[in-house]
Write a structure and sequence with these properties.
Length: about 300
């Protein structure tokens, strides 16, 4: 892999649809061009340092999962080969290659469809306060990172600013209707279960993940990114030990390093040393190689 690190795109002749923390998305009328850059965020702040190959790894993983899950639910993926992109994009081949995909543009359903199989993050926080998550009552005396008796659907609102907010299923039903909520719940759980089962055989625990859906010609389709370390918690199965936080597959070195600094977790974030960057790239690549047969070979 000889690819230049990419921090930001600035295609003046294209219409920017959205610049997220990690991805740059361009509007191509009925389609979107989604580009995964090498930006990394930690504690919700984008760092000034990039992680080489991160964008490629994320793109590759999403592509793998779109194919893997397409029998559960159709998705927005159209193509990822530059030759198949509209001609106006061909001049950006060097930048786009292996880190971008063309997708169907749809109306997103305004719900973050979170599925949790393990007790962690905001789920753990909620559990400690109320023994429940998003209104779902859980057994008593669970420890942090414990496996839940069964995977649960714990939706959140999509917030433009700040963190997403966990809500109950009833709240979602009021927003988008009972029938659609039930469908999204069933699809999300089915996607998670299929992926989790597979990942476990490859040595990775998918502790939780978030899906987004949209409507395309009256049908629900899976959109955004799927089952990447940016939208999910990946834990190395070998080191799994409930009763505390788990090492994560991607940002662990970054988090650990940042915790050693006197930084208050608000922008601007500090630069990362070369050693941390190198180890982080290795982690991302390791996750990809473990999950995707013949990746990068
Ligand atoms: N096929 C699609 N059609 C329409 N919108 C889409 C499609 N796929 C993804 N999106 C939307 O594109 C946006 C992608 O933005 P992105 O995820 O990069 O940033 P973000 O979610 O605002 O911030 P973050 O950096 O926290 O992820 C999301 O709002 C997502 O809902
Ligand atoms: Mg997003």
């Amino acid at each position: 892999m000889e690819k230049e690190t990419l921090r930001l795109t600035g295609f003046k002749d294209l219409q920017l649809f959205k610049r997220g923390k990690v991805r740059d998305v361009y509007d191509l009328k009925d389609k979107l061009l989604i580009i995964s850059t090498d930006r990394i965020s930690c504690f919700d702040v984008v760092l000034p340092t990039c992680i080489p190959h991160k964008g490629e790894v994320l793109t590759h993983l999403s592509l793998f999962w779109f194919e893997f899950t397409k029998d559960v639910i159709p998705n927005h993926f159209i193509c990822a080969k530059i030759e198949d992109f509209p001609g106006e994009l061909h001049k950006y081949k060097d930048i786009l290659d292996a880190r971008s995909m063309l997708v169907k543009k749809v109306k997103p359903i305004p719900v973050e469809c979170v599925v949790r199989g393990y007790l962690s993050g905001s789920g753990w926080k909620e559990y400690m306060m109320s023994q429940s998550i998003c209104g779902i009552k859980l057994p008593a005396a669970l420890k942090e990172s414990d496996k839940l008796p069964q995977a649960i659907f714990t939706p959140a609102t999509k917030e433009d600013v700040g963190h997403d907010i966990n809500v109950t299923q009833e709240f979602v039903e009021k927003e988008i209707g009972k029938h659609l909520t039930q469908k999204l719940k069933e699809i999300s759980l089915a996607l998670y279960k299929k992926a989790r089962q597979y990942a476990e055989t490859k040595g990775i625990i998918i502790a939780d993940t978030k899906f987004e859906f949209g409507m395309h010609e009256e049908n629900i389709i899976l959109i955004d990114e799927v089952l990447t370390p940016d939208s999910s918690r990946f834990w190395p199965k070998e080191q799994y030990k409930p009763g505390g936080a788990q090492p994560s597959f991607d940002k662990q070195f970054v988090r650990d390093y940042l915790e050693t600094l006197d930084w208050n977790k608000t922008p601007p974030a500090p630069e990362l040393p070369e050693e941390i960057v190198k180890k982080t790239t290795e982690k991302y690549i390791q996750a990809l190689k473990m999950l995707v047969p013949n990746a990068l070979s």
